[in-house]
Fold these 4 entries.
Entry 1:
Amino acid sequence: MPMAANNPAALKLRLAVYGVAAEAEHRPGETLEMILPDDSWARARVDPKSPIRLAESPGLNAINDGETESVVRLVPAPGFATKRNARGIPLGEIVAMRGTYATIALGGGCGLSVVGRTCALCRGRELTEKAGELWPVDEVVEAVRDAFDDGDAEFVHFVLGYFPGDDAGVATLRPYLEAIHRHFDTIVAVTMHPPADLRAIDLTYAAGVDVLSYNLEAADDPAMRRYFPGRARDVFLGRARYLAALAHAARILPSGAVWSELLLDLAPRPAVEAAIAELVGLNVMPLLGVSASLETPALEMTDAAASAAFLFDAVTRSGMSLNWLRDISTSLTALEARHFVAGGSQLPMLLHQLSRNRLGALTTRSLARLRRRLRVKRVRASFDSSSL
């Protein structure tokens, strides 16, 4: 199927599904970050068998599927990634760039589109697999500083694996949040599993999280049981726990600052659209991605396009802010989904462009800090008395 002309969102989805055939200097399995027309960020694995080809030339890179061609900008590999810290660890092992997000996976991280893997809990092997690194706080700050100094990063994104206990890792995360806010003036996003104790969500926000994600990934119960058997167990998490946590978080954080990703290739279109409607009804922003690393049914691009159009319409009607999520290469945002809607409203784009300029970004961060200070006053007693 050729790409829809002048539709960067369709191209982004196809790159996620099929990867891209690139020149010899790019190794098979390598991941390329690129900026598509309309400044949409995308990621694509290098696959010589892909029907989509990347042609590189000085000053011009083009994506071609045989019928349609789009000019893209390849994002160079971050220079800081090969630098080594005092322990000899490459900084790129601590911080990975996803769009303009300096992404730190703690405890191995968990997320098929973000870190390319699920944690041991999700796959039902929590007792047999090593969790993953908990990088020292000072090493994280060092790596993030290099990412900012090199001009690669604008935001910070922590991705947590499974942490046992009622707080799902909030206590472990707090020193990192405090250090990042002490050293950088930036928005901090966190993706983690939902806590059993909803009070931990209040503490998460008060500790410095600006954008929070509990990713369902699987749109319905059958998909969760099939692809994430450990996560589906009621004794651990279960879909209801995700929805309860998302609903609580959406009542605390600003409009549009709570999101949950749905993977288009894990469930049929009706289930995906039902989940979109359910999330939007909770004032949670859905994102759409693809697994790309599980054996799943082939994604029908017509269904994906219809679900994306459904997403844009649902979010537009809800009135949620679109300004918190941008420059995301790993999944499709509601703003990008407008390309699947004939005559999609330009107002969301105008508001989003305003938030991107220096004054708009500064205002967003300032309002976030003020809003959090007011909220912290209400949860200070929880910090002092809770054992979370």
Note: Confidence is low (pLDDT under 50) at residues 374-381.
Entry 2:
Amino acid sequence: MYDMDTAHENANVLPAGLTVGVVDEQRAFPLLIERASSGAGACSLNELWDNYREYLDASLYRTGAILFRGFGVSEQTTFASLIAHLKEEMMNYVDGNSPRTKLGSNIYTSTEYPPEFFISLHNELSYAPRWPERLLFCCVEAASEGGETPLVDGRALLAELPAEVVEEFRRRGVKYLRNLHGGKGFGPSWQKTFETDDPAAVESYADNCGMNLQWMEDGSVRLTCVRPATTFHPKTGEEVWFNQADQYHPSTHPPAVYQAMKAFFKGREEKLPQNATFGDDTPIPLEYLEVIREQTRRLLVKFRWQQGDLLLVDNVLTAHGRMPFKGTRKILVAMTAQTAQRDCAKEIA
């Protein structure tokens, strides 16, 4: 098990020209490492990663996210160069649930939902048997208004949720339902979701991942799977809230939209674009979902993006989302090596 305190205490002192603080004093995260100058002799992100990796790892495990500011990661080429220098195994967005554009070298646009919509907080691919260990976001262009990437600590969220809610989710798990169209329809297609036009490749992926798959006559595919509602960090051993039940459930939509969906799909809920129930197919009480959303809103931290910002997120410890925005916003994202669900499994005492 990773000893965070020892690693942090023994870490090298950061070089001159860098200041260390936190974005939100009350929540004490994310950590903020800011470079005052980009002149000759100023420490680069590559040098910081090479020479202070132990410090960065310990800080990330302690706080859940680090914002690097003043390092000038403001273009796709700069971002790609940094990722190549990290020499980390990167993963693609296969089985992702958000519309994105792949820009090459496992770099993607951030979620492309219309700017007026709030994207609820989630851990990337928490419904899958494998998920990214870390996420890297870089700001190429900040929105003129809004567009923050809110964060919430999954350890804090788990601690603040009512014991009754946590125990029900622990005991029953979460069943996820997705209906992905075959090229024409609302939301993502199965081709874009799995980055392939080959049905056999999708079937192989689903079989390997423990998903139930059913092809529909119209060329769409229905996917279901049951996953745990909490998980344990593979390095620190801490239990965290780690599911997307509140995001998958149709009540995540505005009230008028939710009511219309309920009426339209009544008696045929299996045809909803996506849905979440308990793992035994019983409905999740709406009051449970609302308390999850309420506590998430209460605990979230957000900051104004600045061009050139780089945000490093531990995807198990920290959930992220997107605030509505105005103007042009361009945030790029990359995902490091996959963490398997089995590597985070642990009996709950």
Note: The chain has a mean pLDDT of 89.
Entry 3:
Amino acid sequence: MPPSPIATAFSPRQVLLFSGHRMDAPDRPQPRFPATLEAAAAREIARALDTLGADASDLALCQAAAGGDLLFLEACVQRGVHCQVLLPLAEPAFVQRSLWPSTHGAAWQARWQALKPRLADPPRVMPDELGPAAAEGDTFERCNLWLLDTALAWGAHRLQLICLWDGAAGDGPGGTQHMVQEVERRGGQVCWIDTRRLAAP
């Protein structure tokens, strides 16, 4: 089923799509996005948005996982960007799956709760919009495609993907590598923030 259109009162100048690593769990064997890099990641996301001139004429799309997603949304809200969150799971399940496992999971949940009232529109939930996924492994890849198809509704020439990524394959289907490949295949622009080059303060 194709994604249903998002009702907006404007045609965005550019669509800012985000995909990036969730903050590492405390016991992650090989660090990918540890808590020590949060400030550096936030700084680079802000720099990317400023380079693109992000403002109230733009639309931001992403999930709301701990780490990159919430850093991106917080920065977009600060700039007055119209933000729309698309969740792959019902919110309680999403919180358990994509917020709590990260380092400082309770703090990330609190940041999400504080951010929600500041969003232009309430989050949309994929199972409610598109029906249940065919299989558990398809959930996050399906949400990537839902985000991308929604972004492309305004044309590939308006699509800017900002990604926070180490350049490697993800832990499962639907990771940032998948999103980058799909955006490039469909003609969108990619701004890559390489987590391997981030420096802790």
Note: The longest strand covers residues 159-165.
Entry 4:
Amino acid sequence: MKKFIHKQIILLITYFFIIMTSSFAIGPESNLSYLGIDVSEWQGYIDYEKVKEAGIDVVFIKASQGSNWKDPYFEINYENAKQNGLKVGFYHYLTAVNEEEAMQEAKFFASVISGKQVDCKLVMDYETFQGVDINNINKISNAFLETVEELTGKQMMIYSDLSNAINVFGRDLSSKYPLWLAYYGNRNNIEDIRTNWDSYIGIQYNDRGIINGIRGYVDEDLYSEEIFLEDNKNLPNVERPDNSEISSETIEYIVQRGDTLSQIATRYRITVREIAQINNIQNVNL
């Protein structure tokens, strides 16, 4: 009898372990069938004919950042990518520190991409939190995502690295918005890692890609078919918020003794990766 009870307990524990690990295992939603890149001003002028010939199917284009900065290459990236038959998506780099700023940025993003024809889900790139606590990060994210969806009628998704997918963005967000994951290691190593998503529909697997038609490095991605919108009609016209004068200024900053890349990135509300990319910095710790 004791042996029978012991076996039952072992079976229950084993069953519980299988359920828990399978519930949190993260992998692609479906086959990663589409090759992609994501681009911004840091790539400069891109020859999209050569990019298409290199086998790229999808390009995500940075449209805007904050409440008034429009990527200076946004329009030309969009036009040339479309002309060469690539599927196009747009992303916004969020810098808000409260919900009001998040809604303002959402309105600005929607105005920048206004009237464009988009093939892919729209993207929130929120990765520099400037001391905001996790609870408010999720509130800010939700305010931005809901406002963009309301203004555009298009579905949103979240770009996140593995750490933030585990520790920052909560289940409320992951239950409503699919994930575009940034992870540069062996994807088999994350299949049993617990995150707040059960799957991803895109993965940024390399930030040092070399693609014909692009000078320097570019991010490389793989996407499943869920990345695409069911309705890819033109975005509605959205007026620019009254208090946001569009800026596309490139800032030149001279590094001072004691500076770190993370401090500079936080000050100018961009990422360390972007600074390293445009300045060809191989080791971000030096």
Note: The radius of gyration is 21 Å.
